[in-house]
Amino acid sequence: MMRQLITHLIFCCFCISVCISCTSCSEQPANHNPEEPLRLLWAYEYSKEVDGLSSVTLQPEIINTPTPSVIVALDRQFTRLSQEEGSIIWQQKVPDNQAYYINILNYDESYIYGKIHQSTIYFAIDLQSGSLAWEKQNSHGEFYHYPRDGNNKKHIYLSGREPEIYVFSKKGEYKQTIQLQKRARAINAANNKIFIKQAWKPDSTESAYGRIVSLDTETHQRNWQYETTRGGFYYADLVLDNGTLYTGGTSGPGIFVALDAATGQVKWEHPGLLTFRFTLADGKIFVNDGQYIVALDQQTGKELWRQDFTYATTSNVAYLDGYVYHAHNGGLYVMDAQTGEVESGPLLSPDGSGFYNLNAANGRVFVQSDFHLYCYQTYNRE
């Protein structure tokens, strides 16, 4: 009951953060190096008004080929920037001038594949040139934005407004509709399988239920499924790493789970943990539980450390070179990945708004505010 109440409170904080940025919170983890903030390398100002829901869902995407770059899409357009200096490589507006608020971009080595929320429009953008490769209408139904869609070598998989997945060729040709019992909250297509996570709340229960399903890519027949009554798989990604699937739930007591992707067998479960966002790195899983950042051992699920941020947020977590980066209640923090100790923060946005989602690569941290993408040099204790 208490974890369900916490989930509702976190959801309320999520909604409030769409409109209001918290720029000063008194009860925050101690900053051990307040005199040494991260060094700002460059700032890119969005040329259009940022959509509030986009700012708290979509993270900057790191693209390292042919040159290191970062893609943002908070202001109704996709913009690819040089990691080195923040200059624009290309820019392409979102079709129909719509907001884009999926958590993670759906792309391969050639294209970004997108869709418009509660619409029939879907499209592809050339990853190298930024040109609109194609834009089409789905005559079979409307799409819905959830944390992640999927693709493999042959097909694109886009979640629908109803409990179904639309399957298209890489050129946008409609192939098939996969009917489901519940909506697909995230899709991961790999190794001749389609992995789907779901969430729903039976009327007779206080806790939401969660399900992970594996389907064959050719027949769409079910290989296996996993279910839990400890929470629905609503917000977090569904990550496949070295033959293991990872995800976590909310709206219940909470659970994080690792499954064998081939068989669905449970490798380990970590109960009592809410999961809004997470990342895998350094043999660990760094989870945003809302109030806490929690580190789990990737092989066993054992909790290694947790850092209490007092207040709730749903922003993501990034790792680079021994440090964890996270924006909580508007401020950017750096934690030691081994101990969870706060090394730096809160660093506030120069434009006075809050920091939200971020990413890190190549000695840089890219963090989004309401008005800018900021690029900082990574933390160095020395």
Low-confidence stretches: 1-26
How would you write the strand order of the largest sheet? 1-32-31-30
Q: So, the CATH homologous superfamily?
A: YVTN repeat-like/Quinoprotein amine dehydrogenase
| Oligomerization category of the chains in this entry | single chain
Q: Please write the CATH class name.
A: Mainly Beta
- The total of beta strands comes to 32
What is the distance, rounded to the nearest whole angstrom, between the alpha carbons of the first and last residues?
Answer: 45 Å
Instruction: Specify the overall morphology.
Output: globular
Strand residue percentage: 35-45%
Major sheet characteristics: 4 strands, antiparallel
Q: How confident is the prediction overall: mean pLDDT?
A: 91
The number of domains = 1
CATH architecture: 7 Propeller
**CATH fold name:** Methylamine Dehydrogenase, Chain H
Summary tags:
382 residues, mainly beta, Methylamine Dehydrogenase, Chain H, four-stranded antiparallel β-sheet, 2 helices, 32 strands, globular, disordered N terminus
Give a brief rundown of this model.
By secondary structure, the chain is mainly beta. The protein is built from 2 helices and 32 strands. Helix content is 6%, strand content 45%.
Written overview of the protein:
The protein is 6% helix and 45% strand. The longest helix is centred in the N-terminal third of the chain and has 18 residues, at 2-19. With 382 residues, it is mainly β.
How are the elements arranged and paired?
Blueprint: H1 2-19, E1 40-45, H2 52-55, E2 61-63, E3 69-72, E4 77-82, E5 88-93, E6 106-107, E7 111-115, E8 121-126, E9 132-137, E10 150-151, E11 155-159, E12 164-169, E13 174-179, E14 186-190, E15 193-200, E16 209-216, E17 222-228, E18 239-241, E19 244-248, E20 255-260, E21 266-271, E22 277-281, E23 284-288, E24 292-297, E25 303-308, E26 317-320, E27 323-328, E28 331-336, E29 342-347, E30 358-361, E31 364-368, E32 372-377
Antiparallel strand pairs: 1-32, 2-3, 3-4, 4-5, 6-7, 7-8, 8-9, 10-11, 11-12, 12-13, 14-15, 15-16, 16-17, 18-19, 19-20, 20-21, 22-23, 23-24, 24-25, 26-27, 27-28, 28-29, 30-31, 31-32
